[in-house]
Amino acid sequence: MEYKDIIYKSPVKHGLINHEKTYKDFQWEDVKKYFEHFTDEGVNIAHEAIDRHATNSYKNKIALLWEGEGNIKKQYTFLNVKAQSDKLANALKNLGVEKGDRVFLFLPRIPELYISIIAIAKIGAIAGPMFSAFGPEAVKDRLLNSEAKVLITTPELNQRVNEIKEDLPMLKHILLVGAKDNLKKNEISYESEINKASESFKIKWVDPEDYLYILYTSGTTGKPKGVTHVHNDMISHYITTKWALDLREDDIYWCTADPGWVTGTVYGTWGPWLNGISQVVYNGRFDAEQWYSIIKKYKVTVWYTAPTALRMLMKAGNEIIKKYDLSSLRYICSVGEPLNPEVIKWGLKVYNLPIHDNWWQTETGSIMISNYPSLPIKPGSMGKPFPGICAKIINTKGKELSPGKHGLLALKRGWPSMLREIWKDKKKYDEYFCVSGWYTTGDTAYMDDDGYFWFVGRADDVINTAGHRVGPFEVESALVEHKAVAEAGVIGIPDTERGEIIKAFIVLNYGHKPSPELKKEIQKFIKKRLAAHAYPREIEFTKDVPKTRSGKIMRRLLKARELGLPTGDISTLEEG
Ligand code: PRX
């Protein structure tokens, strides 16, 4: 039996009750009425997410239920988050941060990370959250390109920054959370600045089109791109959280993503708080029992996670689930990579709930295609477009393809949270809009006769490993910096747990011999330099890497050879 033929009907019927009707009638403009201060004077997403709740009946409601490794717990009401972010906003202003300045965040998922994101928005400055597993090179690329003025980090992570500090003339201050002493040049204690700062802060009203955050993401070529979003995104954040994640007033919500990735910034910070929801943050590594204990302890009702995590939970077995009371759960969502029908089937069995897949990107800024509570699920499908989103399958000339035909997944441009700029790179930005009238996603997909969308693959060489987007060029560039590596070609190969894993084909420099030890050393080198998730789990030493006559690595050929597929047109392959 084909999984895609099985249709599960979800037992819940609320939120977006009638997708078809709402899709027909919906206007983005109508969402503005949910905001308190969407006026000519200006807007500020931090006002709508935190400050307004701190002055209404939600003020003593828990905004953040935080747990760190070692069972350390903290909780913050909306009023607490307002007070702390006001102080930090003042502290940042005292350091000279102004509207439009970039303040980057290199922090684990500690409360200060979330408070910083709010405080930066309050000034009208631009936040740049970075994943705490990044190595010095990845951090340098981002700080250099964005010309960040201030970095907020911890003494531990700052050790990686120390290696690159000299190359960052624009970086004026490093605020260290939890610094004891021995502060070096440019370093300041976060806590002492907060203690000095005034408690009263007047929020900066900004234009809806003023920038809010930059998140760097990978493409096939070049360094990571700075995808830039604006305060106006709040329209999309608010309503997609409400309808696609189905959040309601009494929910306890847990988004497992880190704000260094777009899911953690949008649906692990802004979306839930715009809706006045209490959210759980767990700052720890993946561990099946620990995850289940979080759901049980905090009585999590809505859970937003990723296919790799679900596959790892599946692997951990069904016996451990019996140890934890997970009956609080009522709605589960997933994003970032294809969600296998097997996982949905398993979820139904063990959690007694379907898992709702949804699709979007750093660039789209919010959920574009989703399975909604009121829509029957076709396992393996990403669902249907969100109201206000026109998604189609097109060919490279912009012609719409009929149902069942594979083509480019494209969106009619102009929804509220669409990226506004690739930071300092107009050419890269324009590439998204090369088909007139459309934003092209880089994904291939098809739509079925019922209007459901099915993911097929990437149209480019971008690798998706455990939901992390990795550019092969970045890994290749980092590899050739290793003294033993002359040339490298990097591809993604299928993996049952992580979707894809990274494989590198490496040509060694004269005098270096292939060995298991060298493989390990190279892997360690990439982990440290780039990021823990970006290292090649497989390495093959080879005599050459196929290239076109113009010198481009033919990754498609490497992949076809690896997977035993037809090699296609190789007429541009370099001879000899
Ligand atoms: O290839 C698609 C894949 O992840 C890409 C976007 O990655 P990123 O910008 O890091 O954002 C991830 C989380 C929003 C997409 O171009 N992707 C995302 N969701 C799905 C998916 N692939 C298959 N199914 C999904 N539901």
UniProtKB/TrEMBL annotation:
Keywords: Acetylation, ATP-binding, Ligase, Nucleotide-binding. Residues 53-412 form the AMP-dependent synthetase/ligase domain. One of its GO terms (biological process) is acetyl-CoA biosynthetic process. Its EC number is 6.2.1.1. Residues 474-552 form the AMP-binding enzyme C-terminal domain. It comes from the Bacteria. One of its GO terms (molecular function) is ATP binding. One of its GO terms (cellular component) is cytosol. It is an enzyme of class 6 (ligase). Belongs to the ATP-dependent AMP-binding enzyme family. PANTHER family: ACETYL-COENZYME A SYNTHETASE (PTHR24095), ACETYL-COENZYME A SYNTHETASE 1 (PTHR24095:SF14). This is acetate--CoA ligase. It comes from Candidatus Scalindua rubra. The lineage of its organism: Bacteria, Pseudomonadati, Planctomycetota, Candidatus Brocadiia, Candidatus Brocadiales.
